[in-house]
Amino acid sequence: MGITEILFWILAVASLFSALMVITSKNPVFSVIWLIVTFFTISGHYILLNAQFLAVVNIIVYAGAIMVLFLFVIMLMNLDKNTEVQKGRWMRLIGAVAGGCFLLVLVAALRGTEARATELGTGDIGLIQNLGWVLFHDYVVPFELSSVLFLTAMVGAVVIGKRDANIPTTIEDARSEAVRATMEVE
Question: Which reactions fall under this protein's catalytic activity (predicted)?
Answer without folding.
Answer: a quinone + NADH + 5 H(+)(in) = a quinol + NAD(+) + 4 H(+)(out)
